[in-house]
Amino acid sequence: MAAEVFLRRLSRWQAEQQRNDIGDVHVMVYRGDVGTEYRDREDFLARFEQDVQRPDFDMVVAGAARLVGCAYGFHASRTGGWWSGFDGELPPDIEEFTASGRVFVLAELMVLPAFRRQGVATRLRERLLARRPTDLAVTTLDLDGDDAPTEAAGHMLRAWGWSRLGTLAPGPGAAPREVWIHRPPG
């Protein structure tokens, strides 16, 4: 029988206090190339440190005897800067949602391998987005060598009703990422 997993929301301060545990989860979830774990962890923690300072940062963690997963995000800047590097033209409604502050970025969703296929990721996503008044949720996926998203993540997003919008190159020298969107019902 699997351990019971509890969810709880973290304040910005609590998230900062748990940064090392969250970094450990990142390493266990993404298991980069051997020898790159330290660099990958430090790169993630640098991004996390920036994200936690964003307006409307919100985070939910899943725990059993230890931290087993988390989801966090923030509202996209009304200036549209989040979309900088989008390949193509954004649909007008997405530009309008962004300008009105109603686009929430799901920046990270991680669940340890031993706790997958138990609904933990679904619960994390639902809890995180439940309090966010949004017209659009958006997330990105890494592209692998043949420009296809990680298969499992793409299947999960499709099962949740998300759709692929296009690609985004977030900065000079940054690898392009697939952009996925979800329009909440109603």
Key terms:
186 residues; 7-stranded mixed β-sheet; 6 helices
Question: How would you portray this structure in words?
Answer:
It is a single chain. This protein has 186 residues and is an alpha+beta fold. The chain has six helices and seven strands; from the N terminus they run E-H-H-H-E-E-H-E-H-E-H-E-E. The protein has helices at 12-17, 19-30, 37-52, 92-99, 120-130, 151-159; strands at 6-10, 58-63, 67-75, 103-111, 136-142, 163-168, 177-182. It has a seven-stranded mixed β-sheet, sandwiched between helices. The radius of gyration is 16 Å and the shape is globular.
Strand content is 25-35%
- List the quaternary state of the chains: single chain
Query: How many β-strand runs?
Result: 7
Low-confidence stretches: none
Largest sheet: 7 strands, mixed
Rounded to an integer in angstroms, the radius of gyration calculated over CA atoms is 16 Å
Structural class by SSE content? alpha+beta
Query: Count of DSSP helices?
Result: 6
Strand order in the largest sheet: 1-2-3-4-5-7-6
Distance between the termini: 38 Å
Determine the fraction of residues in helical runs and give it as a percent range. 25-40%
Query: Please, what is the average pLDDT?
Result: 86
- Shape descriptor: globular
Q: Name the helix and strand elements from N-terminus to C-terminus, one letter apiece.
A: EHHHEEHEHEHEE
